[in-house]
Amino acid sequence: MTVWCAIFLGVLQGLTEFLPVSSSGHLVLFQNIFGIETDFLFFSVLLHLATLFAVVLVLWKDIKHLVFHPFCKEAQMLYTATIPTVLIVLLFQGFFKGAFSGAFLPICFMITAVLLFLTEVLAKKTSGKMTFKTGLITGIAQGLAVLPGISRSGATICTAVLLGVDRKRASRFSFILSIPIILASMAYEILGAVTSGEEVLTFPVLPTVLAFLSAFIVGVLSVKFMLGAFQKIKLWWFSIYLIVLSAISLFII
User: Fold this and answer.
1) DSSP 208
2) Which domain holds residue 78?
3) Angle at CA 178, nearest 5°, toward 123 and 137?
4) What is the pTM of this model?
5) 185/187 Cα distance (integer angstroms)
6) How far apart are CA 108 and CA 245, in angstroms?
7) Model confidence over 217-238: pLDDT tens digits?
8) What whole-number distance in Å separates Cα of residue 241 and Cα of residue 226?
9) Cα first-last separation, the chain
């Protein structure tokens, strides 16, 4: 993988992680376009770690509050949402890993497109409140969104909005909710590589570092943009984009 290819993938991750279009789906799609044959899963998790740092930087005050108040209501809702995600990933880990070949990209992009369209059409009244029921169902949605092509941010935000949460609160909750699952994924991949005796990272160091930095910088800008603009954005624009991408991926994968 060349330096410019790595930077491009980093920028792509930083931009698409917080837009409801599936960063994993885009990474897998361009993995196929660029003909990258090395195991791509750990590299993808590493780029997600970069965007996690972006979330921590932008939402530091919220995260600091959760760290020092681990039993507050919002923290408990995060635990409630994370548990079903972890259970789903552990139960279907073999299937999810196989999905990173890209075989399901057209279908998963289309699922995200339909979800965004339905949210724009159906979600009218919002209370602004997060409940434990909302957290649980949002966690299930996040678990299913491990599939490349199903947007994690799109699935979690849309689920919360459809359950009556206002978009700003839903997007903030979604971004913070990404932290434990990304950390768990990174730990799981490293542990699996160590116990099996495999190399943790098979990509060259310099391109990997530049990809990480690119994802982090663009991720910071993307988080700030989405937190400020998500309430005003019409979701069907993303839906149209994903329908086109679904069609394109049919000919590439």
Assistant:
1) H
2) 3-252
3) 45
4) 0.88
5) 5
6) 11
7) 999 999 998 888 877 888 889 9
8) 17
9) 19
